[in-house]
Amino acid sequence: MNRRTFLATPAVAAAAATEAVAANDKIGVALIGCGGMGRSDLADFQKQPEVEIRALCDVYRPNAETAAKMLTGKADLYNDYRRILERKDVDAVVVATPDHWHPLIAIQACEAGKDVYVEKPISHNVREGRLMVEAARRHKRVMQVGIQQRSGAHFQRAVAAVKEGRIGKVHFAQCWNHGFSASNKGMGHPEDAPVPEGLDWDLWLGPAPKIPYNPARRNFRAFWDYAGGELTNWCVHLIDIVHWALEVDTPLTVTSSGGKWFYDDCRDCADTQEVIWEYPGNLLVRYSTLVHNSFGPNGHPGNKSFGSYGIMLQGTKGTLFIDRAGYEIIPQMEMHSEKVTQGSREAYDDLNGLGQFFTGLTMAERATTSFQHQPHVRNFVDCLKSREKPVGDIEIGHHSTATCLIGNIALRTGEKLQWDGAKEQFKNSAKANEMLRREYRKPWTLAGL
Ligand SMILES: NC(=O)c1ccc[n+]([C@@H]2O[C@H](COP(=O)([O-])OP(=O)(O)OC[C@H]3O[C@@H](n4cnc5c(N)ncnc54)[C@H](O)[C@@H]3O)[C@@H](O)[C@H]2O)c1
């Protein structure tokens, strides 16, 4: 199918929507990027009674068609998102493309008067992220980022406990993704190949450099041109909780080590990496990603799908471990001694010594999982009406994304970088500053980049 016939093809329709909401209350939503996460977003947007999915867009026709099969109503299919932005009946767009497309689509959507739900990481580089914040504010648009853990009740409760001082003053936080891959072959070294039927490769590449089609490239997370490995994928979610709980969002310094040490394949990005950030308030934060061993710093090997991952905040009174499955507050134990007689001192039948005992400095607490994604979508829909900032507002998502992006700049320069959060520039490296933005491939342009 050529590109022209792909534009504005009448939709696949399923059963009519049955929600009893007045027609003029309906909110027209379009999904741009109908891959794995786009379809997860679609599922929860469809559950909102006010929402009507009016358009689906993907540069790969089979993915748009797969999403269309999920529809409970009617929508038109597109391969060029700009046709969606022209539609008056689309109030909001969901941007679930690979990362390198998020900024341009989100900013143009703001300019077209649409509200935006954009997946994390919000951008491919730091400067783009700032431009997204500015566009949302300039055009008075609601822009929610897909950092859905903020909408999970158990995340909210754990963060409240930290803010209440339950684990004391936190000087060290760690987060990690440790996975296990039985083979180091990864995605291999495939040859360039003819563009598959139904894929608009030029539009997939968009502002990224033009290259021949290669199937490995669609694993976009593994290539610097489109993303930044696990650090800009999972770590955005994890660092976001550190920022939220500890009321920080801008590190002072960043260093990183590691590289492509396990996989023998064509990826660019690190598979084994550690990042260390220093934050105001004497806070040290570290992130690690592994693919050869799934054991985590919390002492668990993790589950099958995600390996071991999570966030651990270590405070003067206790430790919080949290992931999507629940959380645990583990008290810091303090040792006490009481006076013992000479006789009892000689009767050493206790390894700690007689008269010694331990008390916890805080209450233990444990919780299981809560819904995160569905309430996050609900919060966005509520904000479309109230015009309030959503819980994952673009400024928040920008800080969580930028923190990860500068980690990769530290890895690639090999420098300990000092970050000027107000200027969003490094204080000590011209080389690193060059990596805060990039040239767009013509004809794509982004004003202010
Ligand atoms: N919030 C979360 O928990 C979460 C989870 C997974 C992925 N994500 C994010 O969602 C985004 C998509 O990830 P994915 O796993 O679904 O990837 P994917 O490759 O499965 O899907 C991306 C889709 O976008 C399409 N696409 C590419 N360029 C496009 C364009 N210009 N216009 C329209 N469609 C285009 C691709 O053809 C593909 O179908 C990423 O940014 C990722 O970080 C978020």
TrEMBL record:
Stretch forming the signal peptide: 1-22
Pfam families on file: GFO_IDH_MocA, GFO_IDH_MocA_C2
Domain Gfo/Idh/MocA-like oxidoreductase N-terminal: 27-146
Transmembrane portions of the chain: none
Listed GO MF terms: nucleotide binding
Residues in Gfo/Idh/MocA-like oxidoreductase bacterial type C-terminal domain copies: 185-251, 372-445
The keyword Oxidoreductase is annotated on this UniProt entry: no
Keywords annotated in UniProt: Signal
UniProt-recorded name of the protein: Gfo/Idh/MocA family oxidoreductase
